[in-house]
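Severity: low
Component: inverse-folding endpoint
Summary: output formatting inconsistent between runs
Steps to reproduce: submit the following structure tokens with default settings.
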């Protein structure tokens, strides 16, 4: 199974998790995701998700001066974003547990055959 297909459903959760620890600007978020093991994530996917999460009220943004060039747009979680993160984390953990149980059952069945 390709990581890109799995990532489509988990990108919101990944971005919310990254922003839970600190405000960050778009490129910094994308780099953090890649450095954490999601090497295949594209900038367009990250920026599109950031815009959508901001439109939904999960994120807010502000501009901050940069010593390295133009002002940077930083993103932070809102209260709704924190609640969405908690809910998505619970859903993700349940989903992972279910898939892991299915895989364990398949392996036990295969070994017993």
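Observed output (run 2 of 3):
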């Amino acid at each position: 199974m390709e990581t890109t297909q799995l990532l489509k459903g988990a990108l919101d959760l990944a971005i919310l998790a990254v922003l839970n620890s600190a405000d960050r600007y778009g490129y910094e978020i994308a780099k953090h995701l890649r450095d954490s093991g999601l090497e295949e994530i594209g900038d367009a996917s990250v920026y599109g998700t950031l815009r959508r999460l901001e439109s939904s009220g999960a994120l807010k943004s502000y501009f901050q001066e940069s010593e390295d060039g133009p002002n940077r747009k930083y993103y932070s979680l809102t209260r709704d974003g924190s609640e969405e993160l908690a809910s998505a984390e619970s859903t993700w953990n349940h989903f992972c547990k279910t898939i892991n149980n299915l895989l364990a059952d398949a392996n036990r069945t295969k070994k017993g055959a």
